[in-house]
Design brief:
- With 122 residues, the protein is of the alpha+beta class.
- It has one domain.
- The protein is built from 3 helices and 6 strands.
- The strands form 2 sheets. A 4-stranded antiparallel sheet has the order 1-4-5-6, with helices on one face. It has a two-stranded antiparallel ribbon with strand order 2-3.
């Protein structure tokens, strides 16, 4: 569930990490592994789904698995802040479709980057 209902959220969309077996550059919607519900990201970098009882987690701790990796029972994580920042730009692009106001888009992007940078090493 959403850890802070006062924060803006967008649907989580990313490419697979660079070391994924699929080598895809396709932007994908991501789903929570435990319940298979759509995942969302807050402007502070928390990922959650809307399933009752599921917990949220910080994007640095997220493990990703596409269909090809699922067959191999393999999970991937973004290993460095630079890899992650490249990927997070897709979440900010997703906000372009989901957040109508230009000012709200700018604030979401600023808050997301700031929140991730502040929390990355904790």
């Amino acid at each position: 569930m959403n850890p802070n209902k006062n924060l803006p959220i967008v649907r989580l969309k990313f490419k697979c990490p660079p070391d994924c077996v699929c080598k895809s550059t396709e932007i994908r919607n991501w789903y929570h592994g435990k319940c298979c519900q759509p995942s969302f990201i807050t402007s502070k970098g928390d990922i959650f789904c809307d399933q009752e009882g599921c917990s949220h987690y910080f994007i640095k701790d997220a493990r990703f698995q596409c269909q090809k990796a699922q067959k191999d029972k393999t999970y991937y994580q973004y290993k460095s802040i630079s890899e992650f920042l490249m990927a997070i730009s897709l979440a900010m692009q997703a906000s372009d479709y989901e957040i109508k106001s230009e000012l709200e888009k700018q604030n979401f992007s600023k808050d997301l980057l700031q929140g991730v940078l502040e929390r990355w090493n904790y």
